[in-house]
């Protein structure tokens, strides 16, 4: 019987192989990162998912810096095929796709104020204005938060920074860091 880790590695290798085959026939180009760019914005502009963009760049685009050069797919049918291939891949920890849960660690910080709510959060790739439900994996408590900032930076297992108020609802003020699941609502 094959372990889940081995099956995960095999699935990732199969996905990478399919992406390479699809993108091999497309004219891959390059994109120079500008100040204010996000992975989500770059992926959307080139017709691919964030995960497909990460796969195309060997997963090295964790933190974008102005001047970095990324490999991007050509347009047309190849880009659409890339999106379909990425959609077939099993969701991996540390990736966020609309409607798919992302698992990792939540931390809290002061938060960036918003006129609509004090329940705010920072996320590396989700667009500003996205509402997500954050569920504490051990207690089952959840809170809906508005993405209005970027972060967390530096520790790949940390997937979301919560405002103090949202962290209080989840009961993680005493823990500081907690295992969570993040689901996109709208």
UniProtKB/TrEMBL annotation:
Membrane-spanning intervals of the chain: none
CDD domains for the chain: DPBB_RlpA-like (cd22268), LysM (cd00118)
Signal peptide range in chain numbering: 1-28
InterPro entries registered for this protein in UniProt: LysM, LysM_dom_sf, RlpA-like_DPBB, RlpA-like_sf
Keyword terms, alphabetized: Signal
Domain LysM: 29-72
Any one Pfam family match given in the protein's UniProt record, by short name: LysM
Entries under PROSITE patterns matching the protein: LYSM (PS51782)
UniProt keyword Flavoprotein present: no
PANTHER family: ENDOLYTIC PEPTIDOGLYCAN TRANSGLYCOSYLASE RLPA, ENDOLYTIC PEPTIDOGLYCAN TRANSGLYCOSYLASE RLPA-RELATED
Protein name listed in UniProt: LysM domain-containing protein
Organism: Deinococcus seoulensis
């Amino acid at each position: 019987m094959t372990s889940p880790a081995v099956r995960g590695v095999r699935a990732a290798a199969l996905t990478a192989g399919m992406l390479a085959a699809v993108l091999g026939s497309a004219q891959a180009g390059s994109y120079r990162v500008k100040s204010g760019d996000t992975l989500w914005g770059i992926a959307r502009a080139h017709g691919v998912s964030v995960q497909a963009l990460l796969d195309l760049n060997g997963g090295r685009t964790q933190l974008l810096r102005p001047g970095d050069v990324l490999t991007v797919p050509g347009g047309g049918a190849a880009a659409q095929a890339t999106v379909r291939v990425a959609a077939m891949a099993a969701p991996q920890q540390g990736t966020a796709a609309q409607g798919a849960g992302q698992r990792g660690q939540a931390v809290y910080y002061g938060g960036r104020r918003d006129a609509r709510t004090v329940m705010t959060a920072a996320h590396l790739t989700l667009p500003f204005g996205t509402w997500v439900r954050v569920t504490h994996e051990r207690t089952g408590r959840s809170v809906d938060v508005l993405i209005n900032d970027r972060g967390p930076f530096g520790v790949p297992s940390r997937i979301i920074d919560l405002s103090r108020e949202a962290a209080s609802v989840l009961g993680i003020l005493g823990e500081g860091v907690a295992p969570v699941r993040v689901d996109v609502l709208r």
